Amino acid sequence: MYRNRFAIFICILFVCLGSIYINATPIFEASDERWHYPVVKFIVDTGQLPYQDVHAKTAWHQEGSQPPLYYILSAMLTFWIDTTDFVKTQQINPHAIVGQPLVIGNKNMMLPLSKQGFEQGTMLAVYIIRFFSLGLGTMTVWLTWRIATELCVDDKITPLLAMTLTAFNPMFLFISASVNNDNLVAPLSAMVILLLLRVLKHNYNTHTIIWLGLFLGLGALTKLSALGLIPLVAIVLSWQSYRHGTWRLWLQSGMLSGGLLIAVAGWWYWQNWIFYGDPTGLNRMLDIAGRRMETVNLLAEFEGFRISYWGLFGAVNIIAESWIYHLLDGLVLIGTLGFLIRLWQIRNRVYDNNLVSSYLLISSWVAIVFFSLIRWTLMTYASQGRLMFVAIAGISSLVAIGLMTLTRLILEIKFFSSLPNIKGFQNLSCFIISTSLFTFALISPLRYIIPAYTPPSLIHSQDLPHDMIKLNWTYSGKMKLLGYRLSTQTIKATEHLPLELYWQALKPMQTNYSIFIHLYGRERQTIGNLDTYPGLGLLPTTTLAPHDIFADTYFITVHTYAEKTAPSRLKIGVGLYNYHEAGLPRLQVTDEDGHALNDTIITEIKLVAWNNTTQTPQHPLAIQFGDNISLIGFDSTCTQLSTPCSIIFYWQPSAAPTADYHVFIQLWHDKTQIHGFDGPVVNGDYPTSLWQAGEIIIDEHQIIMPDNLLDEDYQWQIGLYRLDTGERLYAAHEEGGMLPNFAVTLP
Is the pLDDT of residue 352 over 70? Predict the structure, then answer.
């Protein structure tokens, strides 16, 4: 009774936590839920299973290839609900960032639904199936305890620890609180494992074999991963028959369990053979989901695998702090080490043969699922640790056994001999681990999931910050950009530029307009961009009322290739456009005086290089312009009077210039200027007023040579001047000799 009470209490806690997860996650935001539920709806609407056509776009995507039991049961629970509003609930966020948890914003795959209860329509159907799934998850938690109890008959603590490793796993809670067929295959598989453990311990009878075949068939009718149990069933039955010399019973049990498996699930595999020429339908599923074309780096994939076993929520894009996963990694590694030690301890104990066989059974099941997942990862993009949940009851049991084994070993060390008795120490260890996991499980929806789907609050005009730089730009009379705040004036390649924009809706809108933010480098090359609905996906314009004001903070990543053009002026452009209209037309922009703006640049900052250029000039020089600009060399392709050609200058300031200078390039022959070019330094992309001491600025100028030049002795002269006054910046040799006309004659 002691163990039962605590086991029931853990199940109750699991249901309470699961209910929080159900309400924390908007519908269709949980992993693949937006594809699982449409299978249920199709069955309800048509009374048939979906046919997977590679060329047809369907709401269920590849999930229509899954075995149907979970969907049929869900359809039986929700057939009476009017779900004609399904299309309204399937409004896709076109800018969702899926599978990239480190990117800020746009975690939502769907646009937020209008505020209402879950007492009607599609939302009601989804919530009913979610609670059904939570019930299935509770069964898995209970079966974890039963399996661990079979493995640890005289141990009260280890089964409870195994139970908490399942029940308080935030990712297992998250999946159990969603529409997902993993929720049915996990308890069915655990039930098969439990029956096999009993066969190993107590031999088997017809009653056990019937249940074994039935649950095996139900598992095979739920998810293909359950097929991995078939060889284990065959091995266990064969082993027991060999041990007891009951080959006739082996034949009967094999035929009975196999017959039930075929009777329950065979029809679906036969149907696949008829439709697709493949009993599993796996090839058709891969054709729809997408096959992996490149070579996979399993070590890199393992990073996401380990994280998503414990908690990678939403569309695989909501993550906890990294140190939490490191602690959980340590827990699993310690548990695994402890389990291996436990196997070594009992390797020669004849009286523990059943225990050794039981350990090997659970280990084999976990290994089958793991290597099947590796094979699946090699074929398609699916390396999520949650796909191991089909074996979570076994995983938790083995880790718990390992952890408790190590606690016993610790007390055997002389240094720890003064600690409390082993039971007390094990109780304390179990309590610390369980409460820590429970805390993580409780905090996860409150700290990570709910904030990811909470739109920014509206603000009043009087609450606008005083340091906001005002713009009051109007976009086609629909939205107004009140102003912006920028916390930095410099940025480097790969860094994230934080930009805070203040928007106001001017009228009701029937279209969801997208915001674009572009970062322009040299020659107006886009070196960073972000596209989003307002509120980073959570405040679409159709939900805004006139005069609503909100603030958005965007983090725009500067592309890696921007380093090649640094240092440079970086311009920031902001606008609105219609994502769903051909050509992505932008809304017209007017300033606060009503004048049309042809550009969307709101401000500019400086793109800084991580390191000074290592490129060296072909022709080194040492010319000083003014007090703080040096020409340290140049490259030229204009020596043969070819056209077009280019001259590249290498400038280096000793201090920040106070004005913007232009460069003049003149071609002279016999004291006569026959050609000239004037223009801003770096073509205006990096004016001298932005230069900083020590930088090396590469300044290339394309020259179009005049026609009919004779092959004579020409000279190039260059210099710097102010455009507003025409005044040249004096030029001198490094040793101090002033150059005539403040111009450098290139050698």
Answer: no
